[in-house]
Target: Methyltransferase type 11 domain-containing protein
Amino acid sequence: MTRTLADHQHRSETPPTPADSADDPRARARDWAEIQERMLAPLYEAVYERLEVRAGTRLLGLGCGSGLALVLAAARGARVTGVDADRGRLALARERLYGEGPRGRGRGHRDRAAGELFPADRTAEAVAGPGRPAYDLITAFHPTGPGGDGDSAPDPVFDSALDTAIAAARHGTPVVLAGWGPPERCATDAVLRIAGRLTDRLRKDGRRPAHRDDLEDIAARSGLRPDGSGRVACPFGYADMGSAVRGLLSTGVYDGAVRATDRRQVEKEIGEALHPYLRHDGTVWMPNIFRYLIARTP
Model:
């Protein structure tokens, strides 16, 4: 992750986004793509290495965000398809995967053969459209546990997309689910607990800690059979405090807290919670462990 932190240090010359502009969905999607999403790159690479993603692999990414996981798979030669409910992030994924800017087709439009992108309401088309071959791998890098939106309770949009993909998959197709590791191994857990405390939706001491069987619970309610798991170090490194606050807000975890209080209050409390992880050079560094589960379709 040294390279990741260096990337953020390079971006530290960019002034922090003002609090008012942070309400712009496009700005938040851009913060996710430029600041936060890259923190999960070690998780993506570990999964692809273990499942031997390579040329010829047909991969379906549910909750593909702004497309970093898809780009990494495509770089290995995989044919990728991404699905996401956030159209702002999906637009950025289109820029990354196709080289297509906001005004239309760009120089990378020939890369369109490497993959496709669909909004979540077109998941059925993505997985079972006319003439569409079966996928070799389905990934759902949708964090559960303390990093999820509340806890590991069902997310209707996510669960619907996952169920649709599973129903169309061949018997034994691997499905990868991902989530946070134990809270004692995740420095970011203390910062994420602010969301639960401010919204008063969870117990008084903050967000519910991740349970060992969170991923297995999702697999069970989706009819999947667990077939292995792993842990990956995904430290969160930021160029400065402003970048850290923007990156964390871009996850959507704090949306309820912002509605319950106000954005400036949430930013203030995030900053206070980040203070123990502020280094002498102004960077912010939080070690974390993520966990993934490999399951098989029925």
About this structure: Residues 1-22, 103-110, 145-152, 201-207 have pLDDT under 50 and may be disordered. The first strand starts at residue 58 and ends at 62.
